[in-house]
Amino acid sequence: MYYEFYLDVYFLENLVMNYALLRITNKLLGCSATHLRSLLSAAVSSAASVCIILLYRYSMISTILVSVAANTLMVRFGCKIKDGKLLVRGICLFYTGSAGMGMLFSNLRRMTGATGVRAFVVTTAAAYCCISLVSWICNRLKRKQQRICDVTLFQGGREIHLRGLYDTGNMLWDTTLQSYVSVIDIVPVKELLSEEAAEELAKFCQKDICDKPELLLTLKPHYIPYKCVGCEMGLLPAVVLDTMYLKQNGVQKVITHPVIAVDKTYSSSLRSYQMILNPNLIDS
Asked: Could you mention a single GO BP entry for this protein (predicted)?
C-alpha cells in the first residue's frame, strides 16, 4: 500500500493553521504581536514541521522534541511573549486550539471531500472564520470591560464598594439640582443608612407617607421624571449622597454630592455590575 504525500500542500496547510492559532492566541492573551511577526513565526514552524516528517523514520524522540521546541519558539516570538507564565498560558492555548481546529478541519474535509488544493482552500476559509469570530468576541468583551469601573459610595461616615457600568442609554438629568443621574438598586443604598432611615427610604420609594421624614433630610429625597422605550413617563425616587469615587484603569474621579436614582425594579444579582452610571460622568 502506498499513497502520495505533497510536502508543499502540507507546508501551506500548517502555515495557515499556525498563523490562525497565533492570531487567536495573541488576541486572547492581549499581546501586541503584528500580523507579519505571526506570519513569519508560522512559516518557520511550518518549515520545521516538514523537517519533522523527514525525521520521523529515524527517531520518535527527536520528532517529539523538535515539534515541542518549534511550537514553543513559534508561540514565544509569534505572540511577542516575554513573561514565562504568559508563555505557558500561550502554549496551552495553542495546543488546545490546535486540537479543536484539527478536528474542525478534519470534519470539513470529510464533509466536502476536499483534497489537495481544495483542502488548502477549505482550511484557509475555516481559519479566517475562526480568527474573525474570536476577534469579534474579544472586541465585544473588551468594549464592555472598558465600560465597567469600581465605584465607592460614601454617606454619613459609611461606605460601600461595588461595580458600575457606563451605559449610553442612561441619559437621566436632574433639572432641579442640574446634575447627571446614575441608577442603583435600593439594597446597596440601605447599607449606607441606619435601620430607621432605610425603612423611611423604602417608604419614600414606594411613594408612601414617611413617619420620620427628618431622617432623610441629608439625602435630599426627590423625584426625577423619566421615559424609556416601551413605557410611559414615570417618576424615579432619587437621593443625594456625600461622595462617589470612580476608579478605572488606575484613574480615579471624585464626584461630590452625586445624584442617585433608586430603582426598586432594577436587580443586579445576576449581573457583573451593581450600578448604572451616567456616561457623561466620564467627561464631567
From this structure: asexual sporulation
Over 70: is that where the pLDDT of 284 sits? no
SS3 content of the chain, % helix, strand, coil (to 5): 55, 20, 25
Q: What does the buried/exposed string (b/e) look like for 131-153 if buried means 16 or more CB atoms within 10 Å of the residue's CB?
A: beebeeeeeeeeeeeebebebbb
Question: Model pTM?
Answer: 0.54
**Number of other residues whose CB lies within 10 A of the CB of residue 108:** 15
With H, G, I as helix, E, B as strand and everything else as coil, classify residue 101: helix
3-state DSSP assignment of residue 34: coil
Q: To which residue does cell 465600560 refer? A: 147
Q: Which amino acid is at 269?
A: S
Eight-state DSSP code of residue 208: P
Give the pLDDT band of residue 270 (cuts 50, 70, 90): very low
Q: Does the pLDDT at position 241 exceed 90?
A: yes
For residues 273 and 2, give the distance between their C-alpha atoms in angstroms, rounded to a whole number: 62
Set of cell numbers at residue 44: 518557520
pLDDT average, residue stretch 41-49: 84
Question: Does residue 107 register a pLDDT over 80?
Answer: no
CB atoms within 10 A of CB 201: 23
Q: What percent of the chain has pLDDT over 90?
A: 8
Give the E-state strand segments of 206-250 in sequence order: 222-226, 234-240, 243-248
Q: Given CA atoms 252, 257, 259, 265 in this order, what sign does their dihedral have? A: positive
The DSSP bridge pattern shows strands 158-166 and 275-277 to be parallel
Provide the residue count of the chain.
284
What span, in angstroms and rounded, lies between the C-alpha atoms of 36 and 65?
Answer: 26
Average per-residue pLDDT for the chain: 80
Residue 58 CA, distance from chain mean position:
47
Q: β-strands 275-277, 243-248: how paired? A: unpaired
